[in-house]
Write the structure tokens for this entry.
Amino acid sequence: MRILRFRSFRMNRNFISSNSAVLGLRGIVTSCRAVVLQRFGGPEVLELRPNVEVPDLKSNEVLVRARAVSINPLDTRMRLGYGRSIFDHIYLSYWAAILVEASAIPFAALTAWRALKSTARITEGQRLLVVGGGGAVGFTAIQLAVAAGCHVTTTCGSQSVGRMLAAGAEQAVDYTAEDIELAIKGKFDAVLDTIGGPETERISINFLKRAGHYMTLQGEAASLADKYGLAAGLPLATALLLKKQIQYRYSHGIEYWWTYMRADSEGLHEIRKLSEAGKLKVPVEKTFPITQVREAHEAKDRRHVPGKVVLEID
Ligand SMILES: NC(=O)c1ccc[n+]([C@@H]2O[C@H](COP(=O)([O-])OP(=O)(O)OC[C@H]3O[C@@H](n4cnc5c(N)ncnc54)[C@H](OP(=O)(O)O)[C@@H]3O)[C@@H](O)[C@H]2O)c1
């Protein structure tokens, strides 16, 4: 089953989140509440409209009534225009869910799943380092790896240390108080770097065993395409990635990846099983009603709220 992402809304009517007012056939449901973007910018560009036409469904699509949607860092960056050259229309907060708690999981967990399972192919007994375990992606990565029988070490802020250990991380290093390079011992089979700056990249690479996988969430494909246009930006990104892959293979004997979220039915199935078994959770820090979509984005932008922010639609 695919969640309809309202594909027919194009620029000028960019679609952020939806509330199908009624669940049913396209012939019955004709309008929904929607948050639209007329232009890129700060939270003030977000506009809640009461009666937006529901797009036509294809034969393999369904209309889902969303109760809550999570706001991810990527949503706020896309609101500002990030990735505009790649996505001709924007879907922010597109992971809709029936429950507030569940809305925070799929986007983050699928991102972590793709890195750990599809890219690094982690297996039982391996050592994984998660840089930035305090965030939604890092925290779901820890839980997925623990469930797979891996030994997990992470870096996070002081307020997150207890949560990391309770989720099964064997070591949680407070990056605000400790020297990560001294505090963490031994080498790892894989590192997931959710922060992805030059410093975390350098540190992470040095922690890898030979043939280990370094995965950053901060790949440069979208930013280069935004800067130079699709035609030049994407080949440039491919060349840059290839250059780094060759360099690191030669200098450190490791595999270097930019990793991106991808909807994956097998991943979703496993994620659902783990969530239902209580092994995968993302704490929701604050919930806003959809009418306060601007305030919700503002809170995420300014990091007023540590952790997951969710918009409740009903
Ligand atoms: N490539 C993709 O497809 C993809 C998909 C999803 C997300 N992303 C990107 O990945 C990043 C993380 O996303 P998210 O949803 O997990 O964000 P998030 O929930 O907002 O979490 C960010 C966390 O990073 C931690 N942090 C900040 N600086 C740190 C440092 N120097 N060392 C360790 N931890 C640090 C903070 O944790 P503490 O509270 O513990 O300090 C913060 O809570 C964002 O930049 C997002 O845009 C990319």
